[in-house]
């Protein structure tokens, strides 16, 4: 047999193998798609009460590629005529090495790659109008041999002009990785610019520059999702021009960050929330940088799940707004009662406010034990007071920072900078005099410091420690009264 025949045989054998494997992976991808949709709908049923659901309309399998038509249905409570129905067409290239990937100069080994685009129909026409007839949503997926889905999606630039409302946004880029069982997931989203203007009541403008988000989550033993999330905005600018005098005096958040962390430990949830503002400015006055971290620990997981279920049920049921508001207040009251009945802990660590000439730092913690609250009782002031077992409050403030803040407030009220600075010095001097008279804090050089703690286990006359001095709650209130 000649070399030419051997080469031809190898090519034919490779072609047969590729065709066979591609056909096989085509059969596998439909199974993965059905499984993925079932898992997604199971999650949406739990989180959205069935108001959001995916549906496979059709799946046409070929040797090297397939086509799927999927539909997203969103039922809007109280407004069935406003329910949303969007259809997406997905072109799937079978593995083990999708042909289209090779033609694009990419190498990817896996079950398949898929490209999805929104279908223009009577339900989506308005969205296409908002994008200038560009496809509003496109997505490229890669499905590896483990069933993990690697996605890159784009929401097109939007321009919405309705009545006196105008909204514009640049494209949103979304990247994600999830496993086929939806037990873990990671998501990244970025947008360069968003602006909104409403002139219905007054000129209100919001401008956001370079916003991004990152989410890393996993399913805990209870079925709840926990993890970390971070959102950042380079610049957020809000104008509320309620009068001619307000024009050109926006509220500006520079380098804004928000982070959330949650974890599940046995029957409890721990949640931490953090905020950072690189610079806060309003009416052209710089208020400095702020940082705030709040940790809520030992939250009763079952109480949180019950509250979520009740709220979802209330949202989905047709009730008048007044009745709904009453029920929401009632449910929040019950949630707080159940959380306090456990061993909830709150920690502020720290709150920081940095100005041009100094900083203020506050750390605080509250430990609760409301196990003595009767099962059917709703939390009240007395029960809350009995549930507080210990409190810690520590503050260190630079005197110059307090002057900066008072001066900034006076400037916002229309005073000149020099006048405002002088008023800030006067106000701080009066504050220092009050501190000296009451003993509620102490001045040490260029700082104001105070340490206050409460221990519910101590006798009434020793429950409070104010800068190491023991006293009753009533005595502390008397000392603080002149300041407030």
Automatic annotation (TrEMBL):
One Pfam family from the record: DUF945
InterPro entries documented for this protein: DUF945 (IPR010352)
Protein name: GTP-binding protein
């Amino acid at each position: 047999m000649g070399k030419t025949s051997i080469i031809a045989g190898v090519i034919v054998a490779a072609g047969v193998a590729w065709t066979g494997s591609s056909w096989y992976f085509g059969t596998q991808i439909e199974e993965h798609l059905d499984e993925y949709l079932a898992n997604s709908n199971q999650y949406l049923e739990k989180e959205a009460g069935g108001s959001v659901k995916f549906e496979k309309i059709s799946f046409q399998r070929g040797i090297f590629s397939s086509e799927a038509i999927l539909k997203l249905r969103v039922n809007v409570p109280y407004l069935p005529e406003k329910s949303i129905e969007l259809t997406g067409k997905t072109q799937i290239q079978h593995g083990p090495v999708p042909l289209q990937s090779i033609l694009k100069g990419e190498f990817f080994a896996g079950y398949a790659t898929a490209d999805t685009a929104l279908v223009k129909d009577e339900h989506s026409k308005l969205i296409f109008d908002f994008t200038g007839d560009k496809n509003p949503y496109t997505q490229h997926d890669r499905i590896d041999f483990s069933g993990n889905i690697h996605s890159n999606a784009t929401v097109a630039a939007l321009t919405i002009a309705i009545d006196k409302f105008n909204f514009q946004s640049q494209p949103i880029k979304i990247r994600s990785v999830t496993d086929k069982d939806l037990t873990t997931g990671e998501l990244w989203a970025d947008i360069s610019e968003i602006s909104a203007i409403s002139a219905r009541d007054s000129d209100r403008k919001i401008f956001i520059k370079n916003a991004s988000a990152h989410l890393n989550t996993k399913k805990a033993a209870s079925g709840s999702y926990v993890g970390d999330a971070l959102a950042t905005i380079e610049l957020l600018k809000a104008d509320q021009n309620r009068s001619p005098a307000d024009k050109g005096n926006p509220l500006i958040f520079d380098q804004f960050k928000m982070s959330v962390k949650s974890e599940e430990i046995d029957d409890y949830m721990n949640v931490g929330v953090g905020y950072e503002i690189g610079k806060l400015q309003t009416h052209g006055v710089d208020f400095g940088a702020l940082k705030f971290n709040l940790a809520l620990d030992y939250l009763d997981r079952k109480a949180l799940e019950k509250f979520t279920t009740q709220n979802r049920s209330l949202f989905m049921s047709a009730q008048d707004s007044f009745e709904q508001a009453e029920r929401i207040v009632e449910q929040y009251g019950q949630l707080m009662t159940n959380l306090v009945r456990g061993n909830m802990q709150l920690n502020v660590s720290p709150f920081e406010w940095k100005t041009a000439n100094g900083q203020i730092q506050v750390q605080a913690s509250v430990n609760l034990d409301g196990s003595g609250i009767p099962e059917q009782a709703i939390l009240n002031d007395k029960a809350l007071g009995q549930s507080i077992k210990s409190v810690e409050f520590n503050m260190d403030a630079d005197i110059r920072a307090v002057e900066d803040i008072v001066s900034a407030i006076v400037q916002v009220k229309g005073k000149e900078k020099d006048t405002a600075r002088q008023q800030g010095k006067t106000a701080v001097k009066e504050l220092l005099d009050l501190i000296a008279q009451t003993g509620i804090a102490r001045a040490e050089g260029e700082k104001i410091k105070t340490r206050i703690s409460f221990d519910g286990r101590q006798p009434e006359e020793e429950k409070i420690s104010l800068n190491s001095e023991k006293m009753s709650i009533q005595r502390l209130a008397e000392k603080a009264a002149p300041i407030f």
